[in-house]
Amino acid sequence: MPIEVELPDGNVVEFPDGTDNATMERALSQYRSGSPRADFSGVSTSVDTTARNPLALLSMGGPATSGVTAEQLAQENAARRASFDPAAARAAELSNRQQAFSQAPLIGQFASGAGSRVASGAMAIGQILGLTDEQDAQRQADQMAFMDGNGAASVGKVAGDIGLLAAPGGAIGRIPSIGGRIAGNAALGAGYGALDPVTGDESRLENAAIGGAAGGIGGAAQSALGALAGRARAAVDPIRQRAIEVAREQGIPLHISQLSQSIPLKTMASVAKYLPFSGAGEAASRQQGAFNRAVGRTFGADTPQFTDDVMTGARRNLSSQFEDIYNRNDVPVGRGALERLAAINNAASRRLTQDDARVVANQLDDIVGELNDAGVLTGQKYQALRTQIMKAEGPDKVGQAVSSLRKELDNIAADAVGPDDAVALRKLRGQWSNFRTTENVLKQVAGAGGDVRPAALWPAIRNGSTKEMRELARTGQVLLKDPIPDSGTSGRLLAGGLLGGGGLVGGTESILPLAGLLASGATAGRVLNSGLLAGAVANPGQGALALSRAAPAGTILVAPAVVPKTKRRRADD
Is the residue at 553 inside a domain? Predict the structure, then answer.
């Protein structure tokens, strides 16, 4: 082995085994005389050495000078070997590797941890197949010890374990019977426990037994938590649950007070909106804007606010689509169609006064008068007639009779178009009905600001409105409507307490209550408007369901930490 000499300045020089004393004396004397980088040409060695000092990379030679004797050199070398501590050297090397590893990028630390679990599994398979032995496993453990205690590497190890368990765990989760899932998870745990390298007095059989027991316990916990999640979901009123789903699908943010059935919580939310810095105004604005967008999309206007320009543009767009369809389609009105129109007119004449019945008869006369010799209405004439008839519609008996006549005419026109246009026409009529509903709601007070008040949409739903519009209206009524009637008294009392009670003037006695009020507003508001908490309430049982899916893997991964390896004995020797 190489001869190592530690110099007074702390450097260590390695000489090839068999180097004569004269050569070593010349090299050391030159170093001590101030020429550590001297060119020792003339003396060479065929031995390949690894040095920790530039001297060891040079061929040694040169003029001899006074210096260290061979006897001193041998004594120093013997002293160094006698004081060498292998355990301390390994600890120092491990510390250096840990320090270097901690300075690597986090993604690299994470990937190293994940890869180590795959490497350990491969080592265990090698042991089982007789391709590797305990010494190989111990060397691998020593080589990977520098990752112990590193946070990113530890997370990576868990991720590696989960990745190895994911595919078989997912297949086991699809087993229909509870007993089958428990047995499958027990088998998975046993197999994963066996895929752990063993050294010394450790036992692969015991590892497999512990993993199997943990997997079985996790499988049982999975079934129990899954049942709990199912009962939690079933306990939710289906109408409310569908309203929650609609809000989620449409991107409408919900608040915990709107989802919870707790009256105290709803009351707190109703009052908290008056507190400074509660964020209630901003949260309400986001929700209203999202609700407006959802309503607008039902007739082709994705907008956070229904201005006059938006509504005018939407009307023009829908009318243009109607015109496109009927510009290429005429409306034949045959004998059967005329008889259906006449039947509506005759029914109105029996129910209404003579003057009122004449209004309905006039509409029918106009329709018949626009027919050409072949009994056909052009698409343009149909559109014009339809617009004219709608002006006479209304909530009274006469208006309802006129509406019935117009709807029958629409049915006749719908039957006249081709199959593709018929589909487009049905969609278009639903959008038109949604548009008219929105127009009516915007005539209310809140509509002056371009908002469709969620609670006002349900009573305004028209016949012909689409399912999408009806579900939005139900969501507005069931979830978004303020359940606590608010006359503004709470706000006035709070304002009076701040202003009249000296909350904004005076000394410390006035400032402290105000500070507390501001802090309460900021805290309560953030909680009540929290999307995370709202999501938890909106998905009852979701937490239990997530735990049920993680339970088998969790128990398998935790079990080795619960049962220390040092207490196991080999049973497979």
Answer: no
List, for residues 126-147, the tens digit of each pLDDT value: 878 888 888 888 888 888 888 8
Amino acid at 92: A
Same domain, residue pair 71 and 113: no
Q: Which of 50-54, 367-371, 561-565 has the highest mean pLDDT?
A: 367-371
Both tokens of 17, joined, read 């085994």
Question: 309 and 186: one domain?
Answer: no
In a domain, 194, yes or no: yes
The whole-angstrom separation of Cα 458 and Cα 454 is 8
The backbone torsions φ and ψ at residue 482, rounded to the nearest 5 degrees and listed phi first, read -65, 115
Token duo for residue 106: 């986090």
- Cα 160 from chain centroid? 21
Decide if pLDDT at 493 tops 80: no
Q: Does 267 share its domain with 120?
A: no
Place of tokens 């709107």: 258
> How many beta carbons lie within 10 A of that of residue 481, not counting itself?
14
Per residue in 372-401, pLDDT (tens digit) is: 988 999 988 988 888 889 888 888 999 999
Domain boundary among 432, 456, 480: 480
Asked whether 410 and 429 are in contact (CB, 8 A), the reply is yes
- Least confident among 58-72, 332-346, 549-563: 58-72
The answer to whether 14 and 4 are in contact (CB under 8 A) is yes
At residue 513, what is the residue type? P
Is residue 263 within 8 A of residue 513, CB to CB? The reply is no
State whether residue 331 is helix, strand or coil.
strand
Cα–chain-centroid distance for residue 248?
13
**Is residue 522 within 8 Å of 213, Cβ to Cβ?**
no
Predicted confidence at residue 276, as pLDDT, reads 55
Residues 324 and 202 in one domain: no
Same domain, yes or no, for 490 and 398? no
Residue 266's domain comprises: 251-284+484-540
Residues 181 and 69 occupy one common structural domain = no
Residue 56 is given by DSSP the state G
How far apart (Å, rounded) are the C-alpha atoms in residues 362 and 160? 81
Residue 503 in this model has a pLDDT that exceeds 90:
no
Among residues 84, 119, 148, the one where a domain terminates is 84
pLDDT in tens, 56-81: 433 344 443 345 566 676 777 777 66
Query: Positive or negative CA dihedral for 202, 205, 206, 207?
Result: positive
Q: Is the CB of residue 417 less than 8 Å from the CB of residue 329?
A: yes
Mean pLDDT of the chain: 74
Q: What is the pTM of this model?
A: 0.48
| Cα–Cα distance for residue pair 426/431, rounded to 1 Å | 9
Domain count, the chain: 4
Do 396 and 332 share a structural domain?
yes
